[in-house]
Amino acid sequence: MTTPHQYDARLAPERAGARAAGRGEADRIEGLGELVESVRHRLAATPGALTPHRVSDALRATGRPVGDATVLAVYEALRRDVVGAGPLEPLLRLPGVTDVLVNGSGVVHLDRGRGLEVTEVRLPDEDAVRRLAQRLVASGGRRLDDSSPCADVRLPDGTRCHAVLAPLAQPGTAISLRVPRRGGFTLEELEADGTLSEVGHRFVRAVIERRCAFLVSGGTGTGKTTLLAALLAAAPARERIVVVEDAAELRPDHPHVVGLEARPANLEGIGAVVVRDLVRQALRMRPDRLVVGEVRDGSVVDLLAALNTGHEGGCGTLHANSARDVPARIEALALAGGLDRAAVHSQLASAVEVVLHMVRGRDGRRRLGEIAVLERDTQGWARTVTAVGFAADGAPSWGPSADALVDRLEEPTS
Known about the structure:
The chain is 36% helix and 21% strand. The protein is of the alpha/beta class and 414 residues long.
């Protein structure tokens, strides 16, 4: 009689091949879905680890003859349901993947920086998607059910997971996975990739070297965090960088980075630590550069205050449609934080010097679209004025504040 250990050893080469193939044999066996569900229920009735031997016993209990290939296929299908990101795991490991998206059952999409692509991975039904979403969220320490149908968590490997259960999400449970790049990009790599032109590279490097306070603006998925991480990696190694984030995504390749991550309330509704609280704590940690990974609430008040009290080189990212819209966006956030309009514009004009605006073209490519300078108009309101814009091919076009930008970047460092 074959022992469980011998069974595992005999199937090990086949199992590795099946994993490498993604779906492989699992999709070629007729009626696999019914077999998997039948085995799932039988295994759930008796506690124990998921092994090929237990799967084999459960299959034989169904009364139909089974071979090693069927055992392996069912085992792999069940294993993907309980390990890592399940059937999405191979997609998260593909080179260059930034996002994996599930819109209910059916096909799964991914993004490698060139727009959405349809993958070979398919989720069979809504129940499978719901189970996967709940397991992913649970691995991040949160709950996802009908009483709490939305969740945003960071998985153990650093992947950002956002999930919304059906029927709130249509056509089914939606899962969005944002994959952090291991090691991050350098500015040179961003230039080689087309995110930065040669002229843009020179300007953004000067921004970081001259310790200008700046914001990286843009829409969702335009590469704001990627550019900010590359810029911080270019900061001198002697500088201490303190990063505050709602969910840890910013991983600059720098020898002295301290990260502070916000925490949601627990199941009892207590224990929350918000970004605004962490910004105040960061000011007491002797930062050479204070970074707010994403300015999205009243924490902007504390960031502006910090940048007006001697903390040079501070920066952050901000959702905005264009560089021109940045003052209005900051105004809206700061008003919610208790700062009146006049004070907002006064603080903003004194605190932030440069805006780097990221865009995403119709071809899906992310790139630096504009560099703008913060100035005051005749009435004292802060506004952004274009210094240089970049076409899709990287060609620069000079704006009204080009001379002002050059003057700021040529000032001697303190």
